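Input record (one chain):
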Amino acid sequence: MQLSHRTRLLPGSLAAALAAVFTVVVVSFAGPASAHGSLTDPPSRNYGCWARWGSDFQNPNMAQTDPMCAQAWTANPDTMWNWNGLYREGVAGNHQAAIPDGQLCSGGRTQSGRYQSLDAVGPWVAATKPNNFLMTLTDQAQHGADYLQIYITKQGFNPATQPLTWSSLELVQTTGRYAPAPQYQAQVNAGSRTGRHVLFTVWQASHLDQSYYLCSDVIFTGGTSTQSPTASASPSRSASASAGPSPSRSVSPSPSRSGATPSGSAQPPKACSATYTKTSEWSNGFGATVSVTAGGSAITSWSVTLTWANGQTITTAWNATVSTIGSISTAVNASYNGSMAAGQSTSFGFNGTWSGTNSAPTLVCSAR
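The corresponding structure, as predicted from the sequence alone:
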């Protein structure tokens, strides 16, 4: 109130200039809203871009190695910074009526088109998954979920060359209700699909009529994941695909290539795993090490997302660049330890603060 009083005493032109500067500063430094969430495994398009480039967004290599994220960043940096805020309100469950074809990944160009670039057709980086896998949605605000509707594109649809439409999707699962928690998981069966697809998830939050629309790019390799949902992340009941609405249009677009992997410089991410070890603990402080191991093929870079459940904060780190937003920390390899042969391991460490229970974070490892 004192600042406002002084501002009224300034000459009109100077007050207007200061007000304009203040507005620009607020908009330019707006970070991700900490009160929402997104699909983190397999990562949604905007979460994946943030995880890979959030701490390295000025790297000119983004345009060559990850062109779809580069165009999203150029169109509107908030697409990545606000990776956890892609939602609409008041849809009342009429998702197909509210979201037009070609605009599914942006939630119908929600929030004045902030996420419009996510609808761009092209070689988005895709996570490699077995056909039966565990999906993880991170809910930073613990809104809960009335349900998750999980769609996968039909075999023959090529998201690298075709816009995503409701008729190109098949509803494979509608979950039951999830109690508020940091994460929600569902076991997803992709059937006999092979190659590149889009996993499209509708998350209906419980606290309001708030609907999230999340596009994740995946490459199905066959096989079954050995993971299973934890009790706290599982729905209170499950339902088959027939329990939810089916797409209103059933004609599938003609495929240009069946299960094709797009050409270009962007390559699908490769496998890696991460293991957390707490090395020391003292009053309100602790140290930890995370080991990162390449999967069955060589990798050139990696990142590890750590989702904290009890307010831990990383203060210093070594052998990786670490950034933290809300309850999620993201560690990106240093210049000297990103490349590893198949099965090779490296590690990074950090110190942090804690209160309450210093429990281990949930880890998600991504590699290229």
